[in-house]
C-alpha cells in the first residue's frame, strides 16, 4: 500500500533516481549542477517546448508546459506536450476542465535529447506524468509517448500495471532518499562518461561498485 508523503518532489527526480541514485541526490538534495553540451542542448529543447504554445485543430488539440501534480504520490512537474484527440463527439464529456465536449483521448508526450533507452528511467518519469493527469482529470490514460530529438522519432509507451507499480515504488524510494537526507556513494561505471556532474561526483577517485546501487537500480546506459 502506498504511504502518503508530506512534501511534494519534482517528477524529473524520478528519472534521475532510476538512472543513478547519487546523481539524483546531488541534483535534488545537495543542489549541485554543472552543465555540459548534452544537458545544455536538452535544456534549450525543453525551454522551446515549454514556451506555452497551444494548437487547436478540429478534433485535435495540443498544450505545452502544462503543470501537473499528484497528491497521492506527492509529485509535481510539467508535461512537455499534452495531446488531446476527439474519440467520440457524442460521448460523455471527460475533459470539462478544458471546456471540451465529447470523449477525448489524452496523450502526454515527453521530449528527450538523446536516444531511446533499454532502461525504464524515461518511462517511469512519463508514467508519473500520466498518473498526475489521471488524478487531476479523473480519467484513465493507457498510452503516452517519448520523443527523442537525436533520432527525431517517438517511442510509444504502454502504461501497464508493471510500469505503474515500478513508478510508484520509485516515488516511494525518492521520498525515502529525501527523508534520509544523505547522498549515496559514487559508483564508477558506464553512466559516468556523459554525466554533467562528473567533476563534482569524482567517481574514478572515490567510486566503487556498492550494494546500495545494485539493490535499488541496475546500471543504465548513457544517453
Q: What report would you give on this structure?
A:
With 223 residues, the chain is α/β, with parallel strands linked by helices. The chain has one domain (9-18, 36-182). It has helices at 12-19, 21-28, 37-49, 121-137, 161-180, 198-201, 203-206, 211-216; strands at 9-10, 54-57, 60-70, 75-88, 103-112, 143-148, 153-158. Helix 4 links the parallel strand 5 (103-112) and strand 6. The two termini are 33 Å apart.
List keywords for this structure.
single chain, about 220 residues, alpha/beta, disordered C terminus
List the helices and strands and how they pair.
Blueprint: E1 9-10, H1 12-19, H2 21-28, H3 37-49, E2 54-57, E3 60-70, E4 75-88, E5 103-112, H4 121-137, E6 143-148, E7 153-158, H5 161-180, H6 198-201, H7 203-206, H8 211-216
Helix pairs in contact: 1-2, 1-4, 1-5, 4-5
Summarize this, please?
The protein is an alpha/beta fold and 223 residues long. It has helices spanning 12-19, 21-28, 37-49, 121-137, 161-180, 198-201, 203-206, 211-216; strands at 9-10, 54-57, 60-70, 75-88, 103-112, 143-148, 153-158. Strands 1, 2, 3, 4, 5, 6 and 7 form a seven-stranded mixed sheet that branches.
Low-confidence stretches: 35-40, 207-223
The dominant shape is: elongated
Quaternary class: single chain
Average pLDDT reading: 82
Tally the helices: what do you get? 8
**Domain unit count:** 1
